[in-house]
Design goal:
Blueprint: E1 2-6, E2 9-12, E3 17-24, E4 32-38, E5 45-50, E6 56-58, E7 66-71, E8 76-81, E9 90-97, E10 111-112, E11 116-121
Parallel strand pairs: 2-11
Antiparallel strand pairs: 1-3, 3-8, 4-5, 4-9, 5-6, 7-8, 9-10, 9-11
Length: 122
């Protein structure tokens, strides 16, 4: 599946952003979708993921500040992020895989979007 992430930008600390990931190609509904992020000098880490049936998983640092959702009819996944902090600054990637649960390891995701930059100023 081909993925296109969008919605990043520059926001002040405490602000909000909504990222979108549009999918095309194979049946979107059959994929587990996830958002990862990678800050300079750091490893890519899972932010949140959602299965085809809507089960979600969040990283501890974001679980009270973000919501992942998907619209299978629109082939799109979303990430609503609130109360953003400077340490949330990173490139955010969407990813897809067909193992039926949200996986933490980025190496297990088979398809990736190009990334969207999120910069949170203090």
């Amino acid at each position: 599946v081909q993925l296109q992430a969008s919605g990043g930008g520059l926001v002040q600390a405490g602000g909000s952003l909504r990222l979108s990931c549009a999918a095309s190609g194979r049946t979107f509904g059959g994929y587990v979708m996830a958002w990862f992020r990678q800050a300079p000098g750091k490893q890519r880490e899972l932010v949140a993921g959602i299965t085809s049936s809507g089960t979600t998983k969040y990283t501890d640092s974001m679980k009270d500040r973000c919501t992942v959702s998907r619209d299978n009819g629109k082939n799109t996944m979303y990430l609503q992020m609130n109360s953003l902090k400077p340490e949330d600054t990173a490139v955010y990637y969407c990813a897809a895989q067909r193992i039926n649960r949200v996986l933490v390891s980025a190496t297990l995701y088979e398809d990736w979007g190009q990334g969207t930059h999120v910069t949170v100023s203090s």
